Protein 1
Amino acid sequence: MEVILADVLGYCMGVRRAVDFVEKALETSSDKKVYTLGPLIHNKIALEKLQEKGLSVIQENNINLLNQNTVVAIRAHGVSPNVIKNIENTGAMIVNATCPKVSASQKNAYKYAQMGYLVILVGDKNHGEVTGIAGYAGDSFLLIETVSDAKNVQNSLQQKAVLLSQTTFNSDEFESIAEILKPKFKELKILNTICSATRERQDALKRLCPLVEGVIVVGGKNSANSRRLFEIAKENCMKSVFIENVDEIPDYFYKLNKVGITAGASTPDSVIKAVKEALEKY
């Protein structure tokens, strides 16, 4: 069997940076309990390894349990400014591991909201990144999840709007939504804030699909960017599967001659390597 890896796959800069921040906090804060506010990244295996080193997860509704003897890491997806203030009030030390590209979107949401623009964000409802950016936009905020949502937006030809995207959104769908919204506003500034890492992984997967008989997408089942990779894989390759670990490889994949592997931006190198080696050993 020939196993071909996508040109770009696995950990992105923002995720690797967040993991590095937390590992450093665990090493240097032996006298303090280290938490992440919600899961640091959307990968069960990576989180379990960090928990073995002493990391714990705390939810927003339990922020009051933090104190001066605790460290809390803000995950790569970021949080709203109100959440930051609530943590500061506890006296806990904050390690801000928000991805710089998400931070840029937060700043743009705040800036344009202050300038009187409606901030429109294309993304997934309840995703951590989306709720964080919404907090910076305040009341001047509209979430669009699908092309259908965009079509249902009422014309507001007296209003200025700015269009942002969740960093892990599908590039083609974002462009379609932008085209639908353009004629609905007096002015629509389009800021394609889809992370280049997301686009690179999606484009690399599209190049990979014609070269193989089947594609394996490796990633956390609650990872938005991994799910989008799987959607692209299904569109471009008949035999496509989405797995979290090597044990989930379907039996029929071992009978193929050429298999492609891609992985979401929160998938550790070790998991990708294990999947590749299992296929090659068969």
Protein 2
Amino acid sequence: MNKIKLYEFLRLSEVEQYNTVWSLGVHVDTHIKDNIAINLYVINDFYCEVYYDMKTNKILYKQTFKQGERLDKYLGKINFW
């Protein structure tokens, strides 16, 4: 599974989604706010933010998106080949 669309990703189980992020995702940036590390990954034509609590050393949740306000804070750091 080298190419995956957002709708296919969302149909996967939670465990399969995280495994896909780790195996196919390319880490773009990390944004830290209130001891929460928000790691941005790009997977083909969509993005996934993984929220990680630095105090408890646990993944909290993830958000997927293609565009919009969530992406705006990263625009200066993303390379669009």
Protein 3
Amino acid sequence: MSSGSSLSPMPEFRPAVKESRPVRLAFEGPSGSGRTLTSLLVAAQLGEPIALIDTERGMAAKYADQVPFHTQEFTRYDPMSLFAALAHAAVGGYLVLIVDTYSAFWSGAGGMLDKVDGEARAGYGGTNAGWSKHRPVERAVTEALAAYPGHVIVTLKARTDTVIESDSHGRQYARRISVRPEQRADIEYDFDAVGTLGPVATVHFGKSRIPALAGEVIEQPGEDLGRTILAWADDGAPNWPQRSFIERARDPHATVDSLRERWSEIVTARAAGMAALDLHDQPITLAELVSSRGRHLRALGPEPQPAQPAPPV
């Protein structure tokens, strides 16, 4: 490559350090499989307060006597609305965030598939043009979930198939099994673990970044599962997105130098895509918030220096 390359300087290699970071967890399964209750029971062990984004017409509230949480109900599922909800939850200091269901923002009314199909129906270049227009929003939501300053649990509706099995007496019966979640095909790579909820209150984990869960089938998932996940998340040197990043970026007394320090912190903690609120309470990424405030302050010019006392005559 020529010496005139405009690429930023390559960061230096450094020793890898095991980090403690909030967990990113997904539970998939058909309706009635226990996605919501399992998420709440696990969340209760991860910390509090808990916020739940409800796309199921308030059904999560039936478990409020078992796990205390705050809820926000959606009836249309524009992904940008989810981004805004993530920003408000982050500013609100919720240590655990549940999105129930994440699938709604993909295949529900006003969700990603609706938006892409709408572009095609309007004759704006077909499906490819629709994806080109709306893919950045999907990426922004994915980044915001990854950078949320707390634990994240999402539920996924699963498309199902029916299999015929026999019981111990040789009697046949039909059983529904999960085929794949209603989300993009590679969704599992966004999470530390994905649990598939099955019959009789069980959850099966396939490949998982959490060694204690890989390949396991767990009966009656709940508090014990939550404690196992928390032990894994807390193991290591702390380096994760903090809610205080938003508070300090919004500080009315911030300076160009202090914002430059914030930028270094959020890059180190991989928090650039965190959903935040600007000074007008509009949703924005943390990186955009810091950058826009820095540009504004530089445009105002140097800060006035305090007057120096006159020298004695």
Protein 4
Amino acid sequence: MALSIGIVGLPNVGKSTLFNALTSGKAEAANYPFCTIDKNEAISIIYDERIDKLTDLYNSKKKVYNTTTFVDIAGLVKGASKGEGLGNKFLSHIRETNAILQVVRLFDDDNITHIGEVDPIRDIEIILTELILADMETLNTRLEKNKRPKGGKTKTTEEETAIIEKIMPDLDNGKPLFSLNLTDAEKLVLRPLFLLTIKEMMIAANLGENELCDPNKNPHFPVLSKYAKDNNIELIPFSARIEAELQDLDEADRLSYLSDIGVSESGVSRLAIAGHKLLNLITYLTAGEQEVRAWTVRNGALAPEAAGVIHTDFERGFISAEIISYEKLIEAGSFVKAKELGFVRLEGKAYEVKEGDVILFRFNV
């Protein structure tokens, strides 16, 4: 299951700088609006210490980490829903992603243009308003179409119409769909409409370099933190400039640098972890002499579904799975020893895969 996150924000808040740090990409970062005219898309590796340790344990020839696709999208301006700035292109690119990461600027810098005084709440609400307006236009168009359906009204169109009429007042009052308590069934009905505010959202707070170890040093951060908590939005503090500097360092120097500035992990790591959590995804692992690999699956997936992430034949011909937690495998020191200690379990089709499971699937096709 691929994870795709769209990086959005007003012009010059640090989106492209963050994108470069996330992907070691080459998105142009310049001090003027609409520098990023087309979307930049790249795949970022999610480094995972478990993969490294299992590779050493099995003396594996190859290791494959999980990845996240990040899409850096042109800066948005007020009126984007009506096509202002690069609005239409911006909105079409967002529709393709699983989640939205909104970058907001919390630092002052007279050398970098902004749309006035630094005000992250204002910036967030400008973007949310444009996304809400775009969703309202989509839903109004759909309602008109449902009034005169080809072939007459069906149970499906009536159900869709009822849900749209239920949520429109909330959108009209400025509430994004992700803030509503929509059921899974309602989300399924709305899925073909590719609505924007139904996507999960995170906020990346771009701080000054000397504020990262204690974000509350920044006068805007406590206000933003309360806003995120009140709206149930994941908030990740980071410094785009620091993330960019980290990309030029090897792993040892990177860890040393982070320790020197008083943080334990990079913003890239926090964003990747938060993205998986946001979309209710977990990672399981496969390991052997040929390869150690991380796989992404939805939380709650049963063993055959997890097997199907590797190959559809694995799911179709699933027999059973040998499973051990990563921690127990490391504790045992080898898979053979883990079996002797009784750490390895044989599970069937009803087993619910857990984060960090190391799995060997048995199948027959």
